[in-house]
Each structure stands twice: as C-alpha cells, then as structure tokens.
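Before going further, learn to read the protein records used in this course. The integers have meaning only within a learned vocabulary of local backbone shapes. The record below shows the convention in full.
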Amino acid sequence: MIKTRQALIEDPSNLRPHIVLLGAGASRAAFPNGEAAGRPLPLMDDLINIVGLQPVLEQVRLEDSKEINFELTYGQLISEPTYARTVKEVEQRIDSYFSALSLPDEATLYDRLLVSLRPKDAVFTFNWDPFLFDAYQRNRSAVLLPEIFFLHGNVRIGACLDHDKWGARKDRCPQCLQQLADVPLLYPIGQKDYSANPYIRRNWDAAKILFRDAFTLTIFGYSAPSSDKDAIELLRSAWTARSDRTFEHIEIIDIAQQWFLYDHWSPFTPTHHYLFTRTFEQSRLARWPRRSCESLMYPMTQGQPCEDFPLPTTDNLAALQAFAKEISCHEEKLE
C-alpha cells in the first residue's frame, strides 16, 4: 500500500531535522545566467576574474595561484604585512560585488528551498552572496521557515558582539541599541579561526548540535575544499556522533561525477544511505516539500512508499507561497 500525497501532507510527524548545507555551486545553479541584473555568480576558481581583482593583484608579487584559486591568493596576501593595503582593497571589492547581487522578482531556487523546509529544519551556508537572507526576508510572512546560519559571514548581515543578536547589516541591536557590526567574510587559508568572531562561533556551535540531531542531510553545491578540512571534519564528527546512522540519509546535489562525489563524501556515509542528484528539482526536498523526512521514515519503518507532490514549477512567488501554505497549515498541531 502506498502512502498517498494527501495522507502524507495531512499527517506530519515531529521527526528530527532536515539539515541543508549550501556552497557556491547552489547559487550558480540558481542563477546560471546571472542574478537579477545579469551579474555572474563566482566560484573560488573564477572569483578573481569575475569580481575584477586582476588590476589589484598585478600590483603585488605572488605565485601563480592568483590565476587558479582565490583562497590561495588571499592566504599569500594576508601573510605579508606589506600587502595590508592590497588586502583591504581586495576585501572591499569582494564585499561591494556580492552586496550588489539581488534576487529577481520571480520565484527562485532559494525561495523553493526555504518553503520546502519547516521550522525544525535548518540551512547552513558558506556563501557570501545575499540570496538566502533575501529569500528568507520575502518568504517569512507567508509560511513558517527553517532557521538559517551563515558559517562564513554574509554581506547582508551584522551582529552585536556583546549580545546574542544578529540581523540585517546596519540595523541596531534590540538590547543595547548599538549598530550591528559587519561580520568578517574572509578567513586565511590554513588558519581559519571561526571562534574569533562571536557570531561565527555561535553558528558553528549550532552546526555541531543540529548536524548531530539531523535525520536527513542535504549537501548542495559544496565541494568541501581542502582549505576547509578542519571544518568538514567537525561537521562529519557531529553527524556521526549520535549513532551509526542506520536510518539517516545523505543527499548530494551536484553536477560532478557520482564516483567523485562518493569518494569525496564517503566519510559522511557509513551506512551507504545516500542519494546523488544533479538538480534541486530531483531532490527529496523538491519532491516532498515540508515532508522530506516522513518520505524516508514511512518506507523504512512501515514498508510504505510515498507518493510525491513536487513543488510547482511556477515562477510566480505568490503561487509558490500559497502551495507551501496549504501544506504548512497541517503542521499547526505539532507546534
């Protein structure tokens, strides 16, 4: 017997969280032709060219890494005190470029991602771009959303260094009324100290807790670079700390070859419960919005496959929100 879409929608369970980890590949997938104004979305391997850092870097003597990967370049720059002015200009150009990025009026992949999750769930991102924050802002009044966390800072946010408060950049702390401080975006390769900034530290602390408690983990467009190996080990150990993950699943959304992805993420999949998809539309979140964990639990515990009810393909944001709201109204009994 199949679990029908209506039965699944009307019978939400209070299961453990679905956690999503976003990398730059998610933003490029969302805007393959550029964001609202046509600006391209950089990856670390092409950030120097896209952001236009070549004129700045030509003024200093660095190894050839400036043509390959920005993180390697930044690591060299910040290790040389004589390049302090160059470092500041690079940081300002990156902040200006990412701050100028904007969402189109139409529904985007980021809107679809957020409305497909519930308040028990969470999205963690390494991205500097503003899309997760901006999508959250325009969907929050339509339907209850997951928590969002910025592991590398973000161009839209600020934080109070004295109180556990954060919000839009230039807002004021509701407790002390001081203007929120900008959160650092860049961390030198080989010495990424995520504990120095209180806001960043709290986000990593939340990651350790939520990865430990997660029922499902989706990794979307994140390549886990070698420069972040300590951070990835922290997340891996948190994910595997609770149990041997007999029921839990990992989903990888990426355009890379499956053999590469399996090799890359095998430390996260001790029980081989994983799914590889190339697009968000093929993912469990898109096929069973707000019921992704239930769609796993029923087949595993009751032998009932679940009929899917995918997110609509509409680019009308109001229509997407209305679809999510029809599902979310059945969650009120869980509050």
Summary: The mean pLDDT is 89. The chain has two domains: 5-34+105-152+187-334, 47-100.
